[in-house]
Design a protein that fits this description.
With 92 residues, the protein is an alpha+beta fold. Helix content is 40%, strand content 22%. The chain has one domain. It has a 3-stranded antiparallel beta sheet with strand order 1-2-5. A hairpin with a 3-residue loop joins strand 1 and strand 2. The longest helix has 11 residues. The chain binds zinc ion (2 copies). The site of one zinc ion has 7 residues, from helix 2.
Length: 92
Amino acid sequence: MKKTCNCPVHGEQGISLVCVHIAHAVDAGEKAGFFWGSTDDLARPDAWCKSCEDKLVAASDDAQDQWFREADFKIFCASCWDVAKQVFGGFA
Ligand SMILES: [Zn+2]
Ligand SMILES: [Zn+2]
């Protein structure tokens, strides 16, 4: 898996993954909440929104693969991830 992307805003950056809701909320300027995991194989940990967090908390161990599919993670550049964290963090 390629570990960098060429962001139109930030240029060549390490990659991260965010749930589809955060990806859309960034575009729409909505506050979606911002939660992140502990994986460190990418430039930033995987991140997801408040509604995904609520589903994850409620999900059994068996349901986590399904949760991951429903979150439909998208590739974000590391700097976009930082921006999203600033915008969405503190909510929820
Ligand atoms: Zn989400
Ligand atoms: Zn970027």
